Amino acid sequence: MEFTEIHGIQNKVSRIGLGTWSMGGSLWGGFDEQESIKTVHRALDQGINFIDTAPAYGEKYASEKMLGKALKAYRQRDQVILATKFGLVANNGGIVRNTGKSSILKEIDASLKSLQVDYIDLYQVHWPDPLTPISETAETLKYLKDQGKIRAIGVCNYSVEQIQEFRKSAPLETCQLPYNLFERELEESVIAYCLKENIALLGYSSIARGLLSGKMKKERKFQGDDFRKSMDPKFTEPRFSQYLNGAALLDEWVTKTYNRPLIALAVRWSLDQGIHVALWGARKRDQLDQLEAVFGWTLKQEDFQAIEKIIQETVKDPIGPDFMAPPIRTS
Length: 331
Prior knowledge:
12 strands; 9 helices; alpha/beta; eight-stranded parallel barrel; 36% helix; two-stranded antiparallel sheet
């Protein structure tokens, strides 16, 4: 395992973090709490000490509550760097953005209860809320940090301009954003800014929602409410075939060049591009089988060029992750 540092967090941080969105069940076609708990324990045993979750991952805080049970059974809370979020709240059967002070103060206490902890290592704005002044959100987080309820402050899905405005009112330790071989729109804006300003970058969707796992097949059928059935345009033809073709050629290249699996290339590439912590989404223990293949090598300049050539030649109609943005409340 490789480690990095995040200001405000005492322990070294594993450069691979466990992403727990799929463990909540909602939009992923089901929920198996016991298998999720075993997966958390396996990740910790393999050296991952950073775990990312959110109240919105599953109904009624399902992912957070599962993680709380897993950590209680693990009995080593001080060795785990726990990151959660706020700002997506239930509204008329759906979810909308709300990062106002009163909402944050309710959410922090609910998350502490669900997670069965008395502090959160990294507390993050899940999505920007256009109806709340950024200064109000930032000042509330600074208040929680001064209280000792959180150790570090982060934002997710913020633009450079929003980050700059946020930093006028509170310190900012991390920025989480979508980033993988197929979704690179933010390289010259948010990523460049954060690297320059020493804000730690957390990359989510490192495996492109399974497209870079090495296991995705054209005949794959998504079950239940799995959002890949209709919400993510990458999984609809003709794009699906383009991405699968690109993934197959990348798999062939990394096997021949480094004798590594595709999933290891996907994560290694993110880390070598400057991402401090790449999130590895998993909900079953065997989805962590190839974790060790990420380490012990780095990509060279000619490798980046070869990878770029493959993507340019195969993915003719790329699309970003904008479809994931939740709705804005009306009042």
